[in-house]
Amino acid sequence: MTVLRRWPQVLWLTVVWVLLWGTISVKIVIGGVLVAVAVTALFPLPLLPRLPFRPWALLQLGGHLLADLVVSGAQVAWETLRYGPGARAGIVAVPLLTESERITTFVAAATALTPGSVVLQIDRAGGRLYVYTLGLRGPADATRVRRQMERLQDRMMRTLGEKR
Amino acid sequence: MNIVFALVLGMLAAAALVTVARVLRGPGTLDRVAALDVFVVLIVAASAVYIAIYRDGSTIPLMAAVALVGFVGSVTAARLVERWERHR
Amino acid sequence: MITDVVSAVFLLLGALSCLLGALGLVRLPDLPARLQAATKPQTLGLLLILLGTAIRLEFENAATLILVILFQAVTAPVISQIVARSAYRTGTLDRDALVVDELAERMEREAREGGPAGRK
C-alpha cells in the first residue's frame, strides 16, 4: 500500500478539497480523504525522501518571495514605462549551490518571482544556472544578479534542504 | 466605492484591450500564448471584482477552475510550439 | 468602513499593476522581456485584487479565494519558465540585443576547445 506512505500528499489534497468547499464538516472531510486517496493511487508521484517540515523557515521563505514579487512587479513596470522598446536584458551564469534536483526545481520556479528574472537553462554537470534578467545595464549588474540568486538558493536550502 | 469599482474595471478593460492587441500582433506563437495567459488572468481578476461588488461568492469555484485550466492550456501550447519547431 | 478603504486600495493597486503588466506586454521589445511583464505585475495584480475581494467577503468564501491566490502563485512561475525555455530552444531569443550573454560565452569557449556545446 504505497498510498499509506504518501500520506502527506493525501493530507494536502484533502486541505485543498476543504478549501474548495469553503466550509468544514465531517462529510466534506471524509469525501476529501476519499478523493485524495483515489487521486494519489491513480496518479502516483515518485516517492522521494520526505521534505523536512520547518514551519518558521517556510513562513520566512514565503515572506521573502512575496517581497520579491512586489519589488519585481514594480521593477518590470518601471522598465516598461521608462525604457519600453529600448529595455535591455542579459543572460547571467549563476553558480548552482545545491546538488538536489528537487531544490534546483524550487529555485528555478522561485527565480521567476525575483526581479526581472527567469531561468533559461540548467547545466547540472557544470553546476551553473543560466538566468535571463530584464533591466541589466552592464557587467556590474550581473554581479548583483549573482548575489541575489545566491541569497535565494541559500534561503531555499535552509528551508527545504536535507539537513543543516 | 462605486467610483473605485468603475476605475478598477476600467483599468482591467484597458489592460484586456492592450493584451488582445498583442495576441493579434504576435509575432510568434509563443507571444500569443503568453498574451492569452495574461488574458485569462485578467478574466479571473474581473470576476473577482464582480464578486467584490455584489459580495456574492457563488462563482469563486468557477474562478479556481478557470485559473487552473488556463495554466494547463498555456503549458500545453508552449510544449506544442516546441515540438512544431523541432519538426520544421 | 475601514475594510472598504483597505479593500479599495488593494483593488486599485491590483488593477494598476495588471494594467502596467499589459502595457509591458505591448511595449517591451522581445518575448522573454514580455514574459517578465506577463508574470510579475500580473501575478502581483491578481493577488492584490483577490485580497481586496477577500476582505469584503465572509470567511468561508475568503478561504477559497486564498486557494485561487495559491494556484496563481504556483502556476505563474511555471508558465513563465516553460515558455521561456521554449523560446530559448526554438531560437526566438534575440541574442544580439543582450547586454551580457554568459551562456553564449560558454558555448563559444566550448566550441573552440572542441568540447560539448551545451546540452540541447
TrEMBL record, chain A:
Gene Ontology cellular component annotations, sorted alphabetically: plasma membrane
Keywords: Cell membrane, Membrane, Transmembrane, Transmembrane helix
UniProt cross-references to InterPro entries, sorted A to Z: Cation_antiport_E (IPR002758)
Signal peptide, first to last residue: none
GO MF terms held by the record: monoatomic cation transmembrane transporter activity
Entry's family note: Belongs to the CPA3 antiporters (TC 2.A.63) subunit E family.
Subcellular location: Cell membrane
Organism, as annotated: Pseudonocardia halophobica
Bilayer-crossing regions: 12-45
Coiled coil: none
Main localization, broad class: membrane
Membrane topology value: Multi-pass membrane protein
Pfam families reported for this sequence: MNHE
Protein's name in the database: Na+/H+ antiporter subunit E
PANTHER family: NA(+)/H(+) ANTIPORTER SUBUNIT E1, NA(+)_H(+) ANTIPORTER SUBUNIT E1
Automatic annotation (TrEMBL), chain B:
MF terms (GO), sorted A to Z: sodium:proton antiporter activity
Gene Ontology CC, one term: plasma membrane
InterPro entries per UniProt: MrpF/PhaF-like (IPR007208)
Major localization class: membrane
Transmembrane regions: 6-24, 36-54, 60-81
Membrane-topology annotation of the record: Multi-pass membrane protein
Keywords from the named record: Cell membrane, Membrane, Transmembrane, Transmembrane helix, Transport
Alphabetized Pfam families for the sequence: MrpF_PhaF
Annotated localization: Cell membrane
Family of the protein in this entry: Belongs to the CPA3 antiporters (TC 2.A.63) subunit F family.
Protein name: Multisubunit sodium/proton antiporter MrpF subunit
Species this chain originates from: Pseudonocardia halophobica
TrEMBL record, chain C:
Lineage of origin: Bacteria, Bacillati, Actinomycetota, Actinomycetes, Pseudonocardiales
Cross-referenced PANTHER family: ANTIPORTER SUBUNIT MNHG2-RELATED
Annotated family: Belongs to the CPA3 antiporters (TC 2.A.63) subunit G family.
Species in which this protein is naturally found: Pseudonocardia halophobica
MF-aspect GO terms: sodium:proton antiporter activity
Pfam family, one: PhaG_MnhG_YufB
Keywords (A to Z) from UniProt: Membrane, Transmembrane, Transmembrane helix
Membrane-spanning ranges: 6-26, 63-84
Classification via InterPro entries: PhaG_MnhG_YufB
Keyword Membrane applies: yes
Domain of life: Bacteria
Protein name: Na+/H+ antiporter subunit G
